[in-house]
Design brief:
heterodimer; A: 246 residues; Rossmann fold; disordered C terminus; B: alpha/beta; Fumarate Reductase Iron-sulfur Protein, Chain B, domain 2; 5-stranded parallel β-sheet; 16 strands; 16% strand
């Protein structure tokens, strides 16, 4: 998505669609300049360009018992998968993770869509504290597949937990991307010792084969510039809702 | 010198084109070559002998009527001159700037045997620039044929096919994956060699001819080719999706921060205007000591952009100066601007600091081997020749291969398993009926004009196909 003439290309995960209305929806955190700016777009305001959907479709079929784990804002797109997995005849257990109780989203929707829902927060202010409880869950119950969407650190930790249990674990990687269609190579990740492109080969990869430490470092490469862009935007007035952003 | 009369005696020296001074231009992104003035164009055109059997035309991949347009310049009939070029070439402002004329049209110029050949490229550019300043004329609208064509990619090949087919009355929709048209002309070739306003102007011209340009459409994902032909009602498809997938060296440490593919670097700098960050939102982080790996035009573009961003640049190329695939003029320009070259060397490993940013590169020295059957010299590593360079940015410019998305999503479309190129015959026909391809996606990375030539041939074949189809 490119918000305007001078904007950057940002990759966003589709979190909903309505074929009848012809709409798609995205959920995102306002963390950098572009997302902050997009956050103050008003209804009816034009976005310069939206290209997609890009990347490979998720593998949806009957696996049996599926464990879907979503963290933070990625809970929104995860629920699309929960819905599809359920429709494909799977028994779905959903785990929702957030920093705090206040940051927890879409719990009600998750409960409607899944057979069972667990919640967890980093600070323990709601539900389980952290994801360690998964170890106990996996000891008690057998799952045929695990789908994780969330912050990289969380996907890394979940993959480490599921590995000894031998549960195939699919992670949705979110490396830095520019074009999102195989041109720039900035989204390269190492999976199973091989160089893969997040956009063309992904975004879903085997969590047990992914080099998360490298990905974490690569995600931080433009951090000073991202902070500068965001800061400059805010000091120059920031959100001017309804105004002309270009 | 407004009125320079044609000289009776042959003038062996070409009229020089003014350029920005190396020291000045190495610090800005403005166009390096400034173009001929009217008087200079007149003087240069007057050197042309208007040969009855022009050899220059035979060496032009798109058969531009060169002597005709040069004659028009002599007679100051500029509108006629540009119209003559545009019968064959929809992108003259681009070709006049980036074509390797020295190995094409100009290499066959008879005057070249006695002195400098006619500066055909500069004259073409003069006319194209004249038109941009004086307003362009559109050719008369053709009778619609009722046939629909989908062109994939709005780069040099796709724009050529689109322009040629719409002029013959077919309805043309052009699907471009990026958010701007132009393909490599927009994302690859830098502003100082080919200003983006000029590319946009050429793209606009093709749109004015009636081509429906749809941006942000990645064929293979948003629609597939079978969908276009079955549900979209397109009678024929041209694939001109280019060679967009960057190649890497495979050396350990290549995923460290500060190591860019040439594509990433150029997309950030050119397409997203990273050199104007933070006015534009896409950043580019570049260090003081930049190493560019490779020796083609793309490597030169990366090196020259880096110098403009304030870095010291060293080009590391595994063969010697004589084998550099870049245009001679580009190498000369780059060296004038301060490029240092390290020939016969190749990287073996990259090392990073604690934040995962590249800090040094280990390389080895190479030597040339005897030429192979094709005359290309190979290289081999000189034992115990390792050395280390302090670097904080590395740009890998060792080539691109075709993007695999279309090949993966089009059943029955034959491609070369090793190079990823789509298999075509001499006129660009693929293994599927009604589907044609040309440019880098069929040949592997090559030049703008060769892609346009392929587009030209494919458009001709597609027109025949469409005309004969029920």
């Amino acid at each position: 998505m490119v918000p305007h003439e001078k904007g950057e290309r940002v990759p966003l995960t589709i979190s909903g669609y309505d074929a009848k209305k012809g709409t798609v929806s995205f959920a995102f955190h306002e963390v950098g300049k572009t997302t902050k700016e997009l956050g103050c777009y008003s209804e009816g305001q034009e976005i310069l360009n939206v290209t997609g959907p890009l990347g490979n479709p998720s593998e949806i079929k009957k696996f049996g018992k599926v464990l879907c784990i979503g963290g933070s804002i990625m809970i929104a797109p995860l629920l699309l998968q929960v819905k599809a997995m359920k429709a494909a005849g799977n028994q779905v257990t959903t785990v929702l993770g957030a920093r705090t109780k206040e940051a927890m989203i879409m719990e009600k929707e998750a409960k409607t869509l899944s057979d069972k829902v667990y919640v967890a927060t980093d600070d323990g202010s709601y539900g389980n504290k952290g994801l360690d409880f998964l170890n106990d869950l996996l000891k008690k119950e057998k799952f045929d597949r695990c789908v994780v969407m969330g912050p990289v650190v969380m996907m890394r930790d979940v993959s480490a937990i599921t590995k000894p249990f031998g549960i195939p674990t699919v992670v949705t990687l979110t490396p830095i991307m520019i074009d999102g269609m195989g041109m720039c190579g900035v989204c390269r990740v190492t999976v199973g010792g091989k160089m893969m492109f997040g956009c063309v080969d992904g975004p879903e990869f085997d969590g047990h084969q992914t080099n998360f430490e490298e990905l974490i470092l690569r995600q931080r490469t433009m951090l000073p510039e991202e902070r500068l862009g965001s800061l400059l935007w805010e000091t120059s007035g920031g959100c001017k809702c309804g105004g002309n952003k270009a | 010198m407004a009125e320079t009369k044609p000289k009776p005696k042959l003038n062996k020296k070409a009229v020089e084109m003014a350029k920005q001074e190396p020291k000045v231009r190495a610090k800005n992104f403005k166009e390096v070559a400034l173009g001929y003035t009217e008087a200079e164009a007149q003087e240069e055109a007057s050197r042309c002998l208007t040969c009855p059997k022009p050899q220059c035309m035979t060496a032009c991949p798109v058969e531009v009527p060169i002597p005709t347009f040069i004659k028009c310049i002599k007679e100051k009939k500029y509108a006629e001159g540009i119209a003559a070029i545009k019968t064959k070439n929809a992108l003259p402002a681009v070709c006049g700037r980036v074509c390797p004329q020295e190995v094409q049209c100009q290499s066959k110029c008879v005057i070249g045997k006695m002195g400098d050949p006619i500066s055909i490229g500069r004259l073409e550019r003069f006319l194209a620039d004249w038109e941009r300043e004086n307003g362009s004329q559109l050719p008369p609208k053709p009778t619609p044929t009722g046939k629909k064509v989908a062109v994939i990619g709005a780069g040099p090949a796709g724009l050529t096919v689109a322009a040629d087919l719409i002029k013959q009355g077919h309805e043309v929709t052009e699907f471009e994956a990026l958010h701007v048209g132009g393909g490599v002309l927009s994302y690859g070739i830098p502003e100082f060699r080919l200003p983006k306003a000029i590319v946009q102007n050429e793209v606009n011209y093709v749109q004015k001819l009636g081509v429906d340009l749809r941006l942000g459409n990645l064929i293979g994902r948003t629609h597939t080719i079978p969908e276009l032909m079955k549900e979209g009602g397109y009678d024929a498809v041209f694939i001109g999706s280019g060679a967009g997938l960057p190649q890497f060296t495979g050396c350990p440490g290549e995923n460290l921060g500060g190591i860019y593919s040439a594509n990433e670097f150029l997309i950030r700098v050119n397409l997203m205007k990273g050199y104007l960050f933070p006015e534009y939102d896409t950043p580019i982080r570049i260090g003081k000591h930049v190493v560019v790996i490779g020796g083609g035009n793309v490597a030169m573009d990366c090196a020259r952009c880096s110098m403009r961003l304030g870095s010291d640049v060293c080009l590391v190329y595994r063969r010697s100066r004589d084998e550099l695939p870049a245009r001679h003029e580009e190498i000369e320009n780059a060296e004038e601007e301060g490029l240092v070259c390290k020939f016969l060397a190749a990287p073996v490993e990259f090392y990073g600091d604690e934040r995962g940013w590249v800090k040094s590169m280990k390389a080895v020295c190479m030597e040339l081997t005897e030429p192979d059957a094709k005359g290309r010299r190979g290289v081999k590593v000189i034992p115990d020749s390792e050395f280390t360079m302090e670097v904080d940015t590395v740009i890998i410019a060792i080539g691109q291969t075709p993007n695999p998305i279309i090949q993966r999503t089009t059943e029955g479309l034959q491609s070369d398993p090793r190079h990823g190129t789509i298999t075509v015959n001499e006129v660009g026909k693929t293994s599927l009926d009604g589907v044609y391809a040309g440019g880098d996606v069929a040949t592997g990375a090559a030049t703008v004009i060769s892609a346009m030539g392929a587009g030209k041939r494919a458009a001709k074949a597609m027109h025949e196909y469409l005309t004969n189809k029920k």
